[in-house]
Amino acid sequence: xxxxxSRKMPEELETFLKSFRDKRKKFKYRDMISQIPAHNGKSLxxxxxxxxxxxxxxxxxxxIEPEEILKALNQGVYETxxxxxxxxxxxxxxxxxxxxRDLPDKLTLRNITTDQLDRLISVEGMVVRAxxxxxxxxLAAYRCSKCGHTTTEEQAGLFLxxxxxxxxxxxxxxxxxxxxxxxxxxxQLLRLQxxxxxxxxxxxxxxxxxxxxxxxxxxxxxxxxxxxxGIVKAEVEYSVAAGKLRVFRSRIHCNSLESVGKDPEDLQxxxxxxxxxxxxxxHPSSYERLIQSVAPAIHGFETQKEAILLQSVGSPRQNLPxxxxxxxxxxxxxxxDPGTAKSEILKYAARIAPRGLYTSGRGSTAAGLTAxxxxxxxxxxxxxxxxxxxxxxxxxxxxxxxxxxxxDRSALHECxxxxxxxxxxxxxxxxxxxxxxxxAASNPVLGKYDPYRNIADNVNLPIPLLTRFDLIxxxxxxxxxxxxxxxxxxxxxxxxxxxxxxxxxxxxDTLRKYLAYxxxxxxxxxxxxxxxxxxxxxxxxxxGAEDMITVTPRQLEGLIxxxxxxxxxxxxxxxxxxxxxxAISMVQRxxxxxxxxxxxxxxxxxxxxxxxxxxxxxxxxALDIFRNLEGTGKREVEGKVFVDELVKTGExxxxxxxxxxxxxxxxxxxxxxxxxxxxxx
Length: 681
Known about the structure:
- By secondary structure, this protein is of the alpha/beta class.
- The protein contains 25 helices and 28 strands.
- A 5-stranded mixed β-barrel has the order 3-7-8-10-9. A 5-stranded parallel sheet has the order 14-17-20-13-21.
């Protein structure tokens, strides 16, 4: 049983603040308090372990009955500051706070039970909502309309509390709030959700609202991972029909807030870990060993596994002097037949990335993927982060990418190129960071991938979105006896043994640490690498290249990202010529699979980035034929005649000619003047 709160508690805490010495025998908190005026500060951060070292009973009391002790701590900070700087102490007296950090145990939101009510706890989670900053009444002043006397009432909770009656005349009905005499503090409401990696399978994520006051407001944004230290309170729930409910929900009154893990590369690694990682990187076949260690339960897919590794580390982000940012994240799209382990690859990529998140496009909206503005029960407008914001500086795996509604899918355009999410709604105009690598999976339109149709006809995705992917891979379920036999043996062995058929060269935990460490590397392009990439780009751009049409600088930037990511993966400070050759090889391999124009059988990047050259030629031919049929008199052209003329050229089959007519009509190039007859606009 805890001892009652002593009336001398402020003096005891003041003694602690003035007398506590660190390992170097310096007055730790006295020196920190003396620096508060220099930074226009309003709080003092105190390590819980220091309080426990000073007085164990006091530390236990702080955990069990925190409210009174924290008030006493605020008073102790004020008294100590008053000795150092009385003028500043008086100026910030009502805002001065003592903030506690580094509690011995950190809870998860799932572990907050009724046992923690009214106690001081520390909990780690992810900020998914943040309200606008609002002034909140701390000490409300009520003026009596009858006698003019002002009565003050200390406030707690979200709802305004008024005094029962006037202190002077006792009148209870004539009290009116005096805003000028009321003392306000800054207030913000956050919603904290448990971390994705801590979520048990098949369960909804737990969340809790967090009240922020004073100088901790605006220190966290949606997508940040934070440790909140505060007091757990029970908040009453309301029902429109029944009024107050017996069921309450927990709420945390924040005392201190620390942002942790903003950067995945900040993962704490021991010296032994770093030694092991460096030894792994200098192995003669380290690159191949890393590829073999990705998703060992899935047979094959070496090319896709390499892409996932490059995506997990990415390339350094470039910030130009004018504020322009060049993205370093690599976006990958997998298009394949059902049952080819696309979803498993996506889930593994989300797990192995230093920060990863898996979601499905079928059940995702634009708000769920990017950001939204929602109105809380209290009336506050809150900015809610979506999947790509929560996965900031990591990988967002989006399954069933083609099942999203077009308006929801279009919300990703800005995110995938500019690395931001902009929102303007409910009076809130905001831009959130979404420095996220997108790994998407899509099924073919007809159920199975049709090799006789171009990629744009096989997937239900617009061309502008396709161009934002650095790598696109087609995974086909082809019936080949040798491959089928190997795959079947792999699956059977996996189920029989209950473990990997062949142990991966690098285990899962080591691989995650390796990737986190690799993200710290900032490789620089060498002249040799620049020359290779330039030559390949100019070759692709050359009008004399028979088999290709032009590509854009976006694809050149993609090559640079891939080459830099490979250098990172090898812990190299330089992007070498070999890195550039490998990046070019990956892009060329992609072009030779998804960049083939099925009409000509030749590599044509226009298949992915617009229209293939053959289709453009066919369009030109069709337009010329229509103009000839119109003649100089611009007469009506019968649709049947136009189709027959297209077929006569030998370039069009009957169904292709019919589609061309329909395409012209949909595009508005021609219009139907009467049934079966058309004119050109």
